[in-house]
């Protein structure tokens, strides 16, 4: 690093300092901190999750302890509350740290708990965003998008107006069945510039939404069936990863995860190894789903478009169907 101001050696002004330890602000500092913390947790008997490098697990009989790390913020949960306090005391002997008590605010998300379950919201984050964009006094909107809209400043403001009107909405996490299911969908050639399709899916654990995404596909699909088939494969890969993660958390699923799709052609292509001129060009890695279906690791089911939850992710909808799928 450069010599700090006030400590420059006048005889060697062009010299630099060689660091013997990491300093905050350097690009390697987060990595050095993570390695130091990881080594400490491993010495305490934790195991690093192969599914998520920021997750550490500890199992002893029926006692389970989980640690999730984001830079220098740490979430801890356990089946035994006394074990959490014991861990905190151990960590405080190694690092300077504060215990902020039960989860309240983390990465822009407010968490509140009651007798029914856990409620996650982002009213503070949304409020700050509205003030930064000078939209705090704007009129609320009932929907962030409608059919036929094109990207523009007006659409961006519409999204902010929608956030203002739904600032108190959030996600409820309650006890329920330990099942894993996903709703996946794709438009076809929806991008007017490169004609690529958009994949969207939402994953539910029981009745609780735990994962969702919308992403443009890497290549142009030649048909709606191909676009939906690729969406099925991408969703299958995510479900497989989640299933392995749940297994690591000692959560067993009574049945194979289910994927709901509204395209019969894509379901047939994934289930019956159909090949013909319009599908033989599909990349080999997208046929990953066929192996999982054949081994019964994944169950595929048809669902009508009006009941397809993922429809809200890939399509611009009018107000009535949008609110129906959102709620």
State the gist of this model.
The protein has helices spanning 29-43, 81-94, 123-132, 153-165, 224-248, 264-271, 288-294, 311-314, 319-326, and strands spanning 47-48, 55-60, 63-70, 73-78, 105-106, 109-114, 117-121, 170-173, 180-186, 198-205, 208-216, 258-261, 299-302. The chain has 327 residues and is α+β, with helices and mostly antiparallel strands. The protein has 3 domains: 29-100, no CATH class; 106-165, no CATH class; 176-326, Ribonuclease H-like superfamily/Ribonuclease H (Nucleotidyltransferase, domain 5).
Structure report:
- The chain has nine helices and 13 strands.
- The longest helix is centred in the C-terminal third of the chain and has 25 residues, at 224-248.
- The model has no long low-confidence stretch (mean pLDDT 88).
- The strands form three sheets. A five-stranded mixed sheet has the order 11-10-9-12-13.
- 32% of the residues lie in helices and 22% in strands.
- A hairpin with a 2-residue loop joins strand 10 and strand 11 (208-216).
- By secondary structure, it is an alpha+beta fold.
- The protein folds into three domains: 29-100, no CATH class; 106-165, no CATH class; 176-326, Ribonuclease H-like superfamily/Ribonuclease H (Nucleotidyltransferase, domain 5, 2-Layer Sandwich).
């Amino acid at each position: 690093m450069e010599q700090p101001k006030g400590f420059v050696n006048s005889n060697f002004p062009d010299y630099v300092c060689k660091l013997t330890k990491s300093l905050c602000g350097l690009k390697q500092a987060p990595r050095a901190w993570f390695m130091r913390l990881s080594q400490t947790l491993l010495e305490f008997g934790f195991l690093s999750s192969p599914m998520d490098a920021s997750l550490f697990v500890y199992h002893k009989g029926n006692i389970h302890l989980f640690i999730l790390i984001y830079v220098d913020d740490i979430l801890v949960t356990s089946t035994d509350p006394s074990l959490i306090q014991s861990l905190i005391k151990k960590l405080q002997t190694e690092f300077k740290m504060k215990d902020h008590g039960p989860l309240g605010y983390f990465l822009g998300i407010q968490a509140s708990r009651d007798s029914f379950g856990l409620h996650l919201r982002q009213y503070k984050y949304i409020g700050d965003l509205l003030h930064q964009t000078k939209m705090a006094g704007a009129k609320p909107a009932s929907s962030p998008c409608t059919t036929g809209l094109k990207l523009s400043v007006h659409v961006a403001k519409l999204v902010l107006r929608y956030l203002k009107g739904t600032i108190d909405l959030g996600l409820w996490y309650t006890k329920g069945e330990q099942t894993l299911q996903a709703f996946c969908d794709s438009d076809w050639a929806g991008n007017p510039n490169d004609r690529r399709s958009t994949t969207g899916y939402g994953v539910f654990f029981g009745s609780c939404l735990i994962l969702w995404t919308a992403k443009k596909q890497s290549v142009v699909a030649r048909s709606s069936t191909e676009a939906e088939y690729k969406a099925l494969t991408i969703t299958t890969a995510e479900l497989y990863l989640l299933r392995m993660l749940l297994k690591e958390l000692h959560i067993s699923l009574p049945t194979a995860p289910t994927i709901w799709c509204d395209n019969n052609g894509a379901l047939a292509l994934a289930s019956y190894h159909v090949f013909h001129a319009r599908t033989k060009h599909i990349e080999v890695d997208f046929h990953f789903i066929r192996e999982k279906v054949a081994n019964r690791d994944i169950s595929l089911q048809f669902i009508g478009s009006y009941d397809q939850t993922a429809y809200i992710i890939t399509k611009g909808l009018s107000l009535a169907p949008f609110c129906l799928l959102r709620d």
